[in-house]
Design brief:
The protein has helices at about 5-15, 35-60, 75-85, 115-125, 140-155, and strands at about 65-70, 90-95, 110, 130-135, 160-165, 175-180, 190-195. With about 200 residues, the chain is α/β, with parallel strands linked by helices. It has a 7-stranded mixed beta sheet with strand order 3-2-1-4-5-7-6, sandwiched between helices. β1 (about 65-70), α3 and β2 form a beta-alpha-beta unit. α1 packs across α5 (about 140-155) and α2 (about 35-60) packs parallel to α3.
Length: about 200
């Protein structure tokens, strides 16, 4: 998911004047000197799967929709489609570029800029989402952090009581609690929050 206007805003001389451009938080992001980019990628994928499987299991008794924020090539969407039964899965994406086997139908796709589609979804769905997953997908932690600060208050009103939010980056919620990671997940590679 690319919000170039939001992510570049803080790098155009506005950082001191905008609350979303405060110093990047001290996140647990342990990177060993001998870890390759492949090692980091594997850590992220293993953590993502462990956290998603945990969240799917923990919310199995809920009937509210599931939201995937950012489709990418559709890996996590495909994973959720195989494991989530009885719940609608909606995908928020600016432009679809996923594998054909991992592309949602038009009625499950919410196209557009999340600055508009998330607030509109609060009106459409209310606080009903049983599970929300967001993989911000960038390689720049500062930009990811700016985006996380921006999008957190847009996501929070969509989550149902007892619902879970899984994110690749630390989020900034007022009314959600961060949970310990499940077995198999690597600290700092994925985060889970509960309403």
């Amino acid at each position: 998911m690319h919000l170039h206007k939001v992510l570049s805003f803080c790098h155009l001389g506005h950082a001191r004047h905008h609350p979303g451009c405060q110093q990047v938080s001290e996140r647990d992001f342990n990177v060993s000197d001998n870890q390759s980019r492949l090692d980091l990628f594997i850590d992220r994928m293993v953590s993502q799967r462990a956290c998603l499987d945990f969240a799917i299991d923990q919310t199995a008794d809920q009937t509210g929709p599931v939201f995937e924020l950012g489709l990418g090539n559709g890996r996590t969407y495909h994973h959720m489609m195989q494991r989530i039964l009885g719940r609608e899965i909606y995908v928020f994406e600016r432009a679809v570029a996923s594998h054909p086997d991992s592309t949602p139908s038009d009625d499950q796709l919410i196209l557009g800029d999340v600055r508009e589609t998330l607030p509109a979804s609060v009106e459409r769905f209310g606080a009903t989402a049983s599970l929300i997953h967001a993989d911000l997908g960038g390689h720049n932690r500062e930009k990811n952090d700016v985006f996380a600060r921006f999008v957190s208050p847009l996501i929070e009103p969509l989550l149902a009581p007892g619902g879970l939010m899984v994110s690749s980056d630390r989020m900034y919620f007022e009314g959600l609690s961060e949970l310990p990671l499940p077995e198999g997940a690597v600290e700092g590679r994925c985060f889970i929050y509960r309403r």
